[in-house]
Amino acid sequence: MVYRIKENSLLARIAAWKLNSKRVAIVFGKTIHLCRTSKEELLNDTRWFRHELKHIEQYQRYGSARFIFLYLREWMKKGYENNKYEVEAREAEEDQSNH
Ligand SMILES: [Zn+2]
């Protein structure tokens, strides 16, 4: 899968501040934006990396604009944890074939 990793991303910094969390990875299109973490840390954490790759696949499945719309609609309806795109990404963490 084609992906890019952007460290010290402003977008991720905003997300980290909003979510009040330490390390953040947030995907836009094919790029994984990181804040308070590094490319190395992400790549060494197989489960975390698989999770973010699943989001890239979701962007490709629906197209960027449509996926952002669908994701936000899901988030508003079900919140972050139960959002079906997050559920799918969490399931991918366990998937040995998806790496
Ligand atoms: Zn996620």
Q: What fraction, in percent, of the residue positions are helical?
A: 55-70%
Poorly predicted segments: none
Ligand list? zinc ion
Multimerization status: single chain
The domain tally reads 1
| Sheet with most strands | 3 strands, mixed
Order of strands, main sheet, comes to 1-3-2
Q: What share of residues are in beta strands?
A: 5-15%
Radius of gyration computed on alpha carbons: 13 Å
Globular, elongated, flat, extended or rod-shaped: what is the shape?
A: globular
What are the secondary-structure elements, in order, as H or E? EHEEHHHH
Question: Would you kindly provide a written description of the structure presented here, covering whatever features stand out?
Answer:
With 99 residues, the protein is of the alpha+beta class. It has one domain (4-94). Helices cover 62% and strands 13% of the residues. The protein has a three-stranded mixed sheet with strand order 1-3-2. The longest helix has 19 residues, at 64-82. The termini are close together. The mean pLDDT is 93. The site of zinc ion has 4 residues, from helix 3 and helix 5. Zinc ion (ZN) is lined by residues 51, 55, 86, 89.
